[in-house]
Structures are given as structure tokens and as C-alpha cells.
Fold:
Amino acid sequence: MTQQKAQNNMEKSATKRSCCLAVVITSLCGLAAEYVNLTAGVDESGIPITGHISVYALSAICIVSVIIYILLSRGLPRRTTRKESISFSFPMMLCGMVSALLLLCDSLITLLTGSGAISLILGLLGILGSVGLFLASAIFGGYLRRNPAPGLVACTYLVVRLMLNFKEWSTDPIILDYFVLLFALAFSLLGIYRCFGFDFGLGRPRQTLFHSCAAIFFCALALLRGLMTGSVSTILTFLGLLLWFPPLLSSLFSAPSDEICQQDEQA
Structure:
């Protein structure tokens, strides 16, 4: 048993190193391709140039990155038997709280400066969702009792935001204008949803790892787009979401292997 445990820990350490290296390299490649796409890949009016090499390069990097994340996620078991497998160290808890505060700032700006029902809905739900993530960070840090409610509120906010934002984005005939933002928000939602699934005994380490890596990749690209376009909302949103996932990844790899079991059924 001790030998098997040591072997599992060694495999997990190898997966952790590979995962961190892969996320960093793929993100840097994606950022380079996105930068070229936003500078050389558009004409004077800001419309993407049809057939520009940066479009194909960015698409290829995105596809290859997703495949790499899928392969890396196989280094973790499909399922876990324990409910409380997500726990943050104190620095990681602070990182999660900063993530929540950035999302809270974006929600307050949306609520105070926006107009119409959509801004009101996103602003109010964003405040509740940000508070939910803040409380979840304290829960995972061990400072509050386990309670899945904050996670449910945060996931509800992200679902509504994804639906409303996509409704707005879909009116743009140029998919390159929003596909990075769409995937960043979608993978962030899935990663956070999988994160809180552990509290219900429904933890899926492989899927959580995959969605978290993909969320970091696309959030980094979305953050670059926000910086280059000067969109404060985009910067706050995706920087906030980006900061949530390093603590989650750290928790996945630090979970004791003797409390995790592999099962043959499909995830």
C-alpha cells in the first residue's frame, strides 16, 4: 500500500510539472498569435484581414493546446470518493479572494455606469457571484464551514452572463471579434462548476483539470484583448477569472492520493 501510494504521488508530481509547463508554453504561444492577430491581422478600420496567417496560427494553437490539456488530464483519476478534496493554502486563498474582488469591481462598474435591464441584472448577479467566490475562497481555505451555496450563486451568475453576452456577441458577423471571449467565459464556467462539484461528492479531477487549463489559456488571450482594446470590463473580468484557477490546480495536485480512487465508469 505504501509503495502504491508513493508511486501515485510520483505520477501526480510528474503530471503537475508537465501541466504547469504546458499551460505556460501554450499560453505564451497563444498570446503571441493573438497579439499578431490584433495588430497585423486587421486593416485600418479594425476589421480582420481575410486569410491572414495569424488567424490560422491562432486557431492551430488553440486546437493543439486543448488536445494537450486533454492528454495531461489523464494523469489524474476520473473520480474522487471524498467531498472535501478542494482546499486552498493561505496564499492560494488570498489569490482566490483577489479574483472575487476584481469581479466585484467589474460588477459595480456595470451596475453604476450601465443602462437598461441587462446591465442591472449583470450588475446585481455579479455582486452576488463575486461574494460567493469570496466566501468560497474562505471555505476552501478552512476559515468557514463547508457550504455549497456560494458556489451555486457564482455558477448562476456565470451562466446568466454567458447567455447575455453571447446574445450580444452573436450579432457581430465577425466571429474573430468574440470567440476568444466566448471560450474564456465558457471554460471558466465549466472549471468553477467542476470545482464546486466536489462538495456534492461529484468531483471529477480529470475534467476539472482540463477545464481549468483551458480557462487559463483563453482568459490570458481575453485579457490581452482587453488591454489592447482598452476595455476595463474585459480586463477586470478575465483577470479575475484567471486568478481563480491557479489555486484550484494547486489543490488538485496536492490532494492526498490515498483518498482518491480510480473507477472504470465513464466520467
User: Anything to note?
Assistant: The chain has one domain: 2-75+87-258. The CA atoms of residues 67 and 236 lie 28 Å apart. The two ends are 26 Å apart (CA to CA).
